[in-house]
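We read letters as residues; the fold follows as tokens. Both lines appear below.
***
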Amino acid sequence: MRIPLPPREIPDTGITDAEVDEITWGKIVDYDSGFQVPVLAPGWAPSHTNWLARYRKLGNTVTLSGRVARTTTASSTIFVLPAGYRPPSVSYFKAIGRTHAGVYEEAVLYVDALGNVVCGHPVTTLFFLGISMTFTV
């Protein structure tokens, strides 16, 4: 037979339920910034409203995704990641690019230590869906 324990009063610490959740979950789940939409550099524009360029930080992993169109040949920098989202050195990734002739081919996307997200290939449209880079901040 179980004997019920007498109720205990929990002292008021002044911490709200939301703060308790944040403290508890912060130890279990890594920080999640949610997706952020960057300001595109001159020479680049959104290519499709459903695939806006965006970035997200989950713990120490930064994920880039989206679709952008080159509007001029002047700039290869697409956007700049803010501090805290940048790799310690240059990181290279494969992406899909579409040329002026409408041909899809492999393109190079890289992010440098200053946060510049750069297309290293002469394409008119660049697809970088689900590209992840991992670094320690």
Remarks:
- The mean pLDDT is 79.
- Residues 34 and 56 are 6 Å apart (CA to CA).
